[in-house]
Write a structure and sequence with these properties.
The protein has 208 residues and is an alpha/beta fold. Helix content is 50%, strand content 13%.
């Protein structure tokens, strides 16, 4: 699925140039909205649901750095690229403290834009991988705890639950073994309960 992009610039010629001259398809992107000012961007952030915002640094209403600050303060999953002229170069650097991916000089915008978009996409992929890794870790911990505390022991249920665990799906020779210890009545075998608890604690320490 292409990355979703919003373009924001108060100059109609620049908006058209960004929209038509940049090869968005080649960059695996789709421009979903073009805005003439910062207020338009904010009004359409939710409906357009962009992955990347390419914004001019100076626009009526909210400027590009203000947009970067708004996205940063609200922890929105949007990567910001600032377009700037030479005169605003130092000012554009301030956007970096709001986690802007990069700033691009308008004079050579299209080459710089391709590099900045590549950086934004790489950051998005890293964040996606981190989220998936965290989710998989939770699934794995819940699966193992369920097996070892005895709430999951039927073979068919274990097989079904294990399909959510990515490391079990990889062809690396992992085996899931569910062990149930049956100890006779404590009156018949002295210390039966102690043996059971010791075995349970041992396997819990080894595998959790």
């Amino acid at each position: 699925m292409p990355y979703r992009v919003i373009l924001a610039d108060d100059e109609p010629i620049m908006r058209k140039a960004l929209l038509t001259l940049a090869d968005w398809k080649e960059m695996d992107c789709e421009v979903v909205y073009t805005a003439a000012n910062g207020e338009e961007v904010i009004r359409n952030l939710e409906s357009a649901s962009p992955d990347i915002l390419v914004t001019d640094i100076k626009m009526p209403g909210r400027e590009g750095i203000e947009l970067a600050k708004y996205i940063w303060e609200n922890a929105l999953p949007v990567k910001v690229i600032i377009l700037t002229g030479y005169a605003d170069f130092s000012y554009a650097q301030q956007a970096l403290k709001y986690n802007a991916v990069d700033y691009v000089i308008k004079a050579g915008a299209f080459d710089g834009l391709m590099n900045a978009v590549a950086k934004a996409k790489a950051d998005l992929e890293k964040e996606k991988d981190a989220i998936e890794e965290g989710t998989d870790k939770i699934h794995t911990e819940n699966f193992l705890k369920a097996v070892f505390d005895g709430s999951l022991y039927v073979e068919s249920e274990i097989r079904e639950a294990s399909t959510q665990i990515s490391f079990l799906l990889k062809e690396q020779g992992y085996i899931v073994a569910a062990l149930r210890f049956r100890v006779w009545n404590e009156n018949k075998i002295r210390g039966g309960k102690t043996i059971y608890e010791s075995l349970t604690n041992f396997f819990s320490m080894v595998f959790l």
